[in-house]
């Protein structure tokens, strides 16, 4: 729940920022000179890109959460079998062991979204966020009946 609140607050702050930046862009355009209109248009592009990025990330998170809920209902969420340090951090060797299991599971069932979901969690635990995101995107695509290139 804490992550959801943090995400919502961050998203709201970004929207406020985009509105402020957009209003500056409009003011620059209203000034009417060639330079200010050019800068105004450039400034307006930034909030558009930011809103698109925020929208895509929000959609990704919502779809991943739906998969997690579905897997939880099936009883298929991975059990936390990771060792932790005294400070609560995940032990790297432990994460590597679990990752090896999840990778083998995914290689055995490459078309099963569930194995890709569990592999994404293993990547995340091993602190490999880019691969975790790609694995989750593959799980989402497989669940939706789409195909992604490996």
> Main β-sheet, in a few words?
none
Helix content: over 70%
Number of strands: 0
Low-confidence runs: none
Classification by helices and strands: mainly alpha
The shape, in one word, is: elongated
pLDDT averaged over residues: 91
Beta-strand residue percentage:
under 5%
Cα(first) to Cα(last) distance is 32 Å
Radius of gyration: 21 Å
Order of helices and strands: HHHHH
Task: Count up the helices.
Answer: 5
Organism: Streptomyces albiflavescens
Protein name: Tetratricopeptide repeat protein
Keywords: Membrane, Transmembrane, Transmembrane helix
InterPro entries: TPR-like_helical_dom_sf
Task: Please provide a written account of the structure.
With 150 residues, this protein is mostly helical. It is 77% helix and 0% strand. It contains 5 helices and no strands. The protein has helices at 2-31, 34-74, 92-108, 113-125, 129-143. Helix 1 (2-31) runs antiparallel to helix 2 (34-74) and helix 3 runs antiparallel to helix 4. The radius of gyration is 21 Å and the shape is elongated. The chain starts with a helix and ends in a 7-residue tail after the last helix. InterPro entries: TPR-like_helical_dom_sf. The chain crosses the membrane at residues 7-27, 33-55. This is Tetratricopeptide repeat protein. Keywords: Membrane, Transmembrane, Transmembrane helix.
């Amino acid at each position: 729940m804490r992550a959801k609140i943090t995400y919502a607050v961050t998203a709201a702050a970004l929207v406020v920022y985009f509105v402020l930046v957009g209003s500056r862009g409009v003011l620059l355009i209203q000034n009417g000179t060639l330079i200010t209109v050019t800068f105004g248009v450039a400034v307006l592009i930034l909030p558009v890109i930011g809103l698109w990025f925020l929208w895509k990330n929000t959609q990704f998170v919502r779809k991943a959460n739906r998969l997690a809920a579905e897997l939880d209902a099936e009883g298929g969420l991975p059990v936390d079998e990771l060792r932790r340090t005294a400070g609560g951090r995940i032990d790297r060797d432990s994460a590597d062991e679990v990752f090896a299991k999840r990778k083998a599971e995914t290689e055995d069932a490459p078309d099963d979204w569930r194995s890709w979901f569990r592999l994404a969690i293993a990547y995340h635990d091993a602190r490999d966020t880019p691969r975790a995101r790609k694995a989750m995107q593959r799980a989402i695509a497989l669940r939706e009946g789409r195909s992604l290139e490996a």
